[in-house]
Amino acid sequence: MGSLSLPLSNPEEDEQEKNLTKARLNQSHLLNLFKCQQKYLNHFFQNLDLTQTLAFTQTLLNAKGTIFFSGVGKSGFVAQKISQTLVSLGIKSGFLSPVDALHGDIGILSAEDLLVLFSKSGNSEELVKLVPCAKAKGVYLISVTSVTPNGLMRLCDLNVHLPLERELCPFDLAPVTSTAIQMVFGDTVAIALMGARNLSKDEYAANHPAGRIGKSLIFKVKDLMKKEKELPLCSEQDLIMDQLVELTSKGCGCLLVIDDENHLLGTFTDGDLRRTLKASGEGIFKLTVGEMCNRNPRTITPDAMAVEAMQKMESPPSPVQFLPVISDDNVLIGIVTLHGLVSAGL
């Protein structure tokens, strides 16, 4: 039988693995990097031209059409993110790839639109080529750059300079500080637009219906409560032992004690059942729900926010698993449970 030959070792791979094994993070070096980045960001804040920034923000606020953003590489990612932030605030916005624009996508632009070009150098070939094509469609052009002078500044209608001391990269090449200040600039302007447009919580929530933010701002107690046949109801004259099925079958962990006019008189929980059984023994067979129920339970109204119900359940002196939902005149309407709130994504 022939012998199996062992794979030959690759000296270059062995050396790389050896270097990786030796690699260690230096705590003081890491701390120094964060301090340097803070210094570079402070340079941006201290030298930003607020007159330019105000003109830029006002132009976006006055936009009649869509605010398009464009950029190449890392600046392109920032442009996309800022555009998405504006969309989430209800502002018509979109990202236009400069490469795709030159191959047909420029057809989305109209004379009422704005085109904001993010570029550190302001000389990106793709953006410089895009400018005259966008101008031919009557689009208002804005450059946001950090290196001056540059090609975009000479071609655009409005220019914003983002002061950049240098990149954190030891070679001053990798775009890390420049993209950080682009993001800070864009997001801050977005919040300024949010304030200028008087965007309400309800309007903001309407744009985030599936997320936890939206749910906490949209859902009210009446949207998530159990009602009618789902409610574990009983009267105060009912014997506790006669209501065990009602107590356990509705999945609420309690009984809602009401009078003939549906006013809430109190609650009786499965915890109350255990405590009563321990204290009374066989005497529990003669006790009514009214004798042992909590006459002062926490309650909530149907128009209260669902997140308020969760906070009320978790408040001192001890958390509870449900809240009866009542009207202003103490008529029982429903019940909201902690399990129901959590299941809804709150």
Strand content: 5-15%
Average pLDDT rating: 92
Number of helices: 16
Side-by-side strand order of the widest sheet: 2-1-3-4-5
Major sheet details: 5 strands, parallel
Low-confidence stretches: none
The global form is elongated
Radius of gyration: 32 Å
Q: SSE string, helix = H, strand = E? A: HHHEHEHEHEHEHHHHEHEEHHHEEH
Number of strands: 10
Which class do the helix and strand fractions yield?
Answer: alpha/beta
Helix content range = 40-55%
Question: CA-to-CA gap between the ends?
Answer: 68 Å
What's the structural blueprint in terms of helices and strands?
Blueprint: H1 11-22, H2 27-47, H3 50-61, E1 67-71, H4 73-88, E2 93-95, H5 98-101, E3 114-118, H6 125-135, E4 140-145, H7 151-155, E5 158-161, H8 177-196, H9 201-206, H10 212-218, H11 221-224, E6 233-234, H12 244-249, E7 254-258, E8 264-269, H13 270-280, H14 289-292, H15 306-314, E9 322-326, E10 332-337, H16 338-343
Parallel strand pairs: 1-2, 1-3, 3-4, 4-5, 6-7
Antiparallel strand pairs: 7-8, 9-10
Helix pairs in contact: 3-8, 4-8
